[in-house]
């Protein structure tokens, strides 16, 4: 379940974090502002008017992304151009994926208007691999691509049934639990991250039990966690099966795992353990600033967002503990369309951008956790700590989570199904007290209608 964007939780660059957190808010905010009037036009090709590199380089490669993706911000394009004096790299960015992705599909089908390298969000990767694979370059055998250096489940997401790997992972979103130490102490709960993690280790129901303990002595005006929808997303993200089975069939209504996650999230709502907020809305932001809740399940990319919204008042009060079970929420890929005029050069660029050393650099500068397992052992990742969160060893915590993520199949309408369950279903249970069984049935009907089933 992914409301993925490009965010920042970099351990060192506070300014970058704030900038990217703002981009995250703009990208993900519910009730999102309409339109994208400032979106740039489609990329130009070498030889077209205005498309030739001013330095006279013979090859200009374009990279199409959504939001503040981090590759440019981490300086990777500049480095690549220094290493390849004959290649210029330009980026076009559309702010919101819901505007970017339909254009990408249209351009792939028509074979025009494409960048040489295109980004794909994890919620869309199954559809791209499954329906657009023949229009994409096989990147599995490109020099510089080392399958053994990448997380197996991430590699599998970019590989089609024909065995061609048409998408290379950039980052993943391993989950932990961010918690307020001061609120835990006032509620009589432990505050050390190891001891806190043991409160709920291995079972999301223990997370619910911890919520009850918190509620028994909760400081006035505080809730245990931010939202029931957030719990639902977190639990589903840690399941070995999400909304689709291994054959690509939608099983959201029949697989017991999603229903169990739904019932657990509803229990948080009905037992008064949530602040009844909707994630990535102004009210949620204000909840961070006001200390309205003690926990939020946080992918690595969310740390910068929390820092931005909680501000200096939250510095040193937040910490990070392991989640009950490892899960992944978010992450992206790069693909190379066959329609491009520089497919070989573009494939080499995509391979270089997603190599472990470059992913580690993006993590250090922007906080996107590497999908390359080989990067997890690099000092800049393994030894990363986050001063805002009490000098938490974020590299070790999120690295362990990434290694434990189950290889859940990703379906073609993953993002849409997730949104209908959370914003269209669980939100009503949490905020209006709607009966969970009725809300579940309505959410399934909405999914069937949306998918024309």
How would you sum up this structure, described in words?
With 453 residues, the protein is of the alpha/beta class. It is built from 19 helices and nine strands. Strands 1, 2, 3, 4, 5, 6, 7, 8 and 9 form a nine-stranded mixed sheet that branches. Helix 9 (228-237) packs antiparallel against helix 18. It is globular and about 70 Å long. The two termini are 21 Å apart.
Which features characterize this protein?
alpha/beta, 44% helix, disordered N terminus, 453 residues, 9-stranded mixed beta sheet
What is the mean pLDDT?
87
> What is the radius of gyration computed over CA atoms, rounded to a whole number of angstroms?
21 Å
Could you tell me the number of beta strands? 9
Give the oligomeric state of the chains in this entry, treating copies of one chain as homo and distinct chains as hetero: single chain
Helix-strand layout with pairing:
Blueprint: H1 14-28, E1 59-66, H2 76-83, E2 87-94, H3 97-110, E3 117-121, H4 122-132, H5 152-157, E4 168-180, H6 181-186, H7 193-200, H8 204-216, E5 223-225, H9 228-237, H10 256-270, H11 282-290, E6 293-299, H12 303-310, E7 318-322, E8 328-335, H13 343-353, H14 356-366, E9 369-370, H15 373-376, H16 379-382, H17 394-404, H18 414-432, H19 436-450
Parallel strand pairs: 1-2, 1-3, 5-6
Antiparallel strand pairs: 3-8, 4-6, 4-7, 4-8, 4-9
Helix pairs in contact: 1-12, 9-10, 9-18, 10-18, 18-19
């Amino acid at each position: 379940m992914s409301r993925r964007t490009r965010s920042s939780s970099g351990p060192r660059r506070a300014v970058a974090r704030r900038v990217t957190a703002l981009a995250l808010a703009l990208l993900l905010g519910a009730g999102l502002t309409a339109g994208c009037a400032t979106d740039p036009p489609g990329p130009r090709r070498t030889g077209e008017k205005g498309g030739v590199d001013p330095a006279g380089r013979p090859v200009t490669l374009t990279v199409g992304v959504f939001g503040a993706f981090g590759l440019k911000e981490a300086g990777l394009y500049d480095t690549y151009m220094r290493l390849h004096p004959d290649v210029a790299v330009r980026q076009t960015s559309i702010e919101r994926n819901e505007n970017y992705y339909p254009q990408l599909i249209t351009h792939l089908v028509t074979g025009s208007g494409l960048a040489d390298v295109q980004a794909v969000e994890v919620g869309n990767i199954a559809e791209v691999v499954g329906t657009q694979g023949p229009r994409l370059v096989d990147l599995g055998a490109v020099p510089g691509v080392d399958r053994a250096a990448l997380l197996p489940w991430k590699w599998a997401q970019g590989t089609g049934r024909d065995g061609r790997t048409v998408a290379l992972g950039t980052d993943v979103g391993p989950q932990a639990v961010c918690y307020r130490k001061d609120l835990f102490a006032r509620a009589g709960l432990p505050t050390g991250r190891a001891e806190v993690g043991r409160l709920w280790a291995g079972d999301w129901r223990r997370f619910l039990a911890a919520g009850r303990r918190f509620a028994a002595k909760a400081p006035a005006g505080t809730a245990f966690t931010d939202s029931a929808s957030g719990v639902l997303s977190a639990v589903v993200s840690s399941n070995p099966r999400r909304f689709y089975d291994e054959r690509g069939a939608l099983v959201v209504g029949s697989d017991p795992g999603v229903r169990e996650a739904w019932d657990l999230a509803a229990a948080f709502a009905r037992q008064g353990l949530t602040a009844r907020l909707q994630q990535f809305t102004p009210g949620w932001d204000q909840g961070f600033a006001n200390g309205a809740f003690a926990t939020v399940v946080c992918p690595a990319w969310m740390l910068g967002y929390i820092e931005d919204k909680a501000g200096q008042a939250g510095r040193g009060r937040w910490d990070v503990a392991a989640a009950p079970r490892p899960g992944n929420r978010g992450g992206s890929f790069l693909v190379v369309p066959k329609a491009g005029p520089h497919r070989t050069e573009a494939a080499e660029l995509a391979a270089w951008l997603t190599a472990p050393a470059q992913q580690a650099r993006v993590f250090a500068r922007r906080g996107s956790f590497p999908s390359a397992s080989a990067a997890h052992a690099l000092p800049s990742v393994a030894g990363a700590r986050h001063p805002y969160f009490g000098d938490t060893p974020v590299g070790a915590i999120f690295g362990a989570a990434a290694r434990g993520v189950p290889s859940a199949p990703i379906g073609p309408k993953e993002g849409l199904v997730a949104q209908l369950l959370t914003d269209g279903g669980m939100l009503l249970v949490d905020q209006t007290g709607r009966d969970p069984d009725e809300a579940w049935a309505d959410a399934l009907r909405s999914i069937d209608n949306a998918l024309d089933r």
